[in-house]
Amino acid sequence: METKEETFKCESCNRIFGSKEALEMHGAAKHPEKVPKDKKRFPVKKTRNWVIFILILGLVIFGVYFLMTSSNSFDDLPASEINIGSHKNIALHIHSDLEIKINNQGFPIPADIGIQTGIMRPLHTHDSSGEVHIEGPYARDFTIGEFFQIWNKTFNSTCIFENCIGTESNSTLKMSVNGQESQQFENHIMRDGDEIVIEFTSA
Question: Which of 23, 76, 103, 165 could form a disulfide with 17 if both were Cys (CB 3.0 to 4.6 A apart)?
Fold first, then answer.
């Protein structure tokens, strides 16, 4: 009586193999084991796309936050502590003309006020013409008092430099803006095209 040789059938393609090992090798090569639908792995490509999206979204949020906080910080800082560095990437660039008279004598306004090696303040001069450059990476208001702070000179409603109306009898201190007298003194916000004249006279 002949012994029937045991065979092994591939359930995927119905091929017959003489041994279990042969069937397993065939299955590994031709029919890799399928993962059940409820156990499928999350697609690698989809995962990568989500990671990239989240990273880009995070960078955008950080960028917006950085710009907002930088702008607020700029608004809060006094002009004497702001360094715009150069004339590049500025959102504000206007000019005012300043003239100072002490007892009817013109007082020279030096060049390069607010400019040092590696430093440029938002209020500065380039020459001795009296033109004040008002610049910044963000639009904001600057006062003439801030210019004098950068210059390291005194100016307020009673004094210009060392000349004060309280120490000299019959002395006066006046400021005019575009031909009109102003009582704002150091609080005057400098506007484009302003012609500012400060006059101190003593008896």
Answer: 23
Question: How would you label 65-104 residue by residue, b for 16+ Cβ within 10 Å and e otherwise?
Answer: eeeeeeeeebeeeebbebebeeeeeeebebebebebebee
Same domain, 46 and 133: no
Distance separating alpha carbons of residues 55 and 94, to the nearest angstrom: 40
Per-residue pLDDT of the chain (203 residues; tens, 9 = 90+): 555 667 777 777 777 777 777 777 767 766 776 544 444 455 666 777 888 888 888 888 877 666 555 544 456 788 999 999 888 878 899 999 999 999 999 999 999 999 999 999 999 999 999 999 999 888 899 999 999 999 999 999 999 999 999 776 789 999 999 999 999 999 999 999 999 999 999 97
What is the DSSP code (8-state) at residue 160? E
Contact 90, 121 (CB under 8 A): no
Residue 16 in any domain: the answer is no
Instruction: Tell me the residue range of the domain where 57 lies.
Output: 41-76
pTM: 0.63
